[in-house]
Amino acid sequence: MNSNRFSDSLLDSKRLVGDPLADDTVRRIFASGAIRSANELMRSIGENDDVSEMLLPDVMDDYFAATSTLPPWADPSKIACGQELFCRYGPQSVLVLHCASLPECYAAAKGVKVLAATARLSNDAQRRIVETAQMVVHVMAPGGLSKKGKGIVDCQRVRLMHAAIRHLILASGRWNNEDGLPINQEDLAGTLMTFSIVVVDGLNRLGIDLSADEVDAYLHTWACVGWVMGIDEELLPTNVEDARELMQTIRRRHHAPCPEGKDMTAALVTTMQNMMPGTLFDGFPAVLIRELVGTATADLLNVPQADWTKMFVGPFRMLGHLVDETGDRSALITKVSSLVSYRILDGLIWFHRGEKKAPFHIPESLQHRWANNNNNQTGGVFGGLRDWF
Q1: Positive or negative CA dihedral for 166, 150, 84, 232?
Q2: CB of 183 within 8 A of CB of 18?
Q3: Can you state the angle between helices 150-172 and 20-32, rounded to 10 degrees?
Q4: Lowest CB count within 10 Å: 94, 143, 186, 201, which one?
Q5: How far apart are CA 62 and CA 318, in angstroms?
Q6: What is the pLDDT of residue 329?
Q7: If phi over 0 gives left and psi between -120 and 50 gives alpha, with beta otherwise, what is residue 2?
Q8: What is this structure's pTM?
Q9: Residues 217-261: tens digit of each pLDDT
Q10: Are 110 and 256 in contact (CB under 8 A)?
Q11: What angle do CA 374, 132, 282 make, to 5 degrees?
Q12: How far does CA 224 lie from the centroid of its chain?
């Protein structure tokens, strides 16, 4: 393990760096006179799934040219393997996104202030969460990272949105420079890790064992995404050891309790509760978050305490719907989490993102695979449980 690759001095320096290409593009947009304010630009980006529809060819040609292809070191076979992995475990990966990736982001006390400063997530929590999930699905679907693939298009939009947010926050004069630039390189790298190594580890905690080659392929795919998103190659891990080192270093440097992180987490838990039927399972999002991020991170985010037996296992055993013949708790978590995953996908699909935004989209290549997997959840001792979900 290269324990010195991501030193404090390196990461300190990266907190002072934004995204030169995207930042320059935003400056050129304003200079063109086509858009007069950062708020107007953010609305325009937010309302268009494809930022090429903003019709500023003279300004944005360089941006599209630089962001429409993968890095020269991209390995198509690894990307295909990583996306195949998502085909198999996409619903569970989306569950991990909600219950581990996003909470890990909210635990970074400096980075989460950007969300509070823009007031976007707190005002429209579910929309932001849905759009994050949409980008992940588009990136990881087969063909998503091909030229003009939906994953590439989403990356272009999100990268430009980040630059617009940086411009808006810095122009406000209310940003604490001691926190580094808003959405700086270290924070971008940390977010990338929550989509890559945190998902790999989360799937493992749900009882899904991946081979070393599968893990390597998944991390490589997200490293390519990071490159398209403008993350410095110096901050892109090349193996699982580097990825875990970077994530652990960022946790050490930035995880701390703060009001913004607690508010974001509360909004996330509420969003997940709204995706579940009735109120019987309202405690389950907290159970899963605690299961996936651990007690320390859950406590600093003020995640509600949850008694697994009292809130879930007990009632179902009394009803005769939930019996784990082997007594294997990990097998129980695997089955139940799979069922909950599909409920979350249902919630994403039915969420309305606004008049100018397309509804949540699952590529056809994934629809068939996931539908078959969902149908296979019927039968056996878990058939009754599926009816309850």
Answers
A1: negative
A2: yes
A3: 70
A4: 143
A5: 63
A6: 45
A7: beta
A8: 0.85
A9: 999 999 999 999 999 999 999 999 999 999 999 999 999 999 999
A10: no
A11: 60
A12: 15
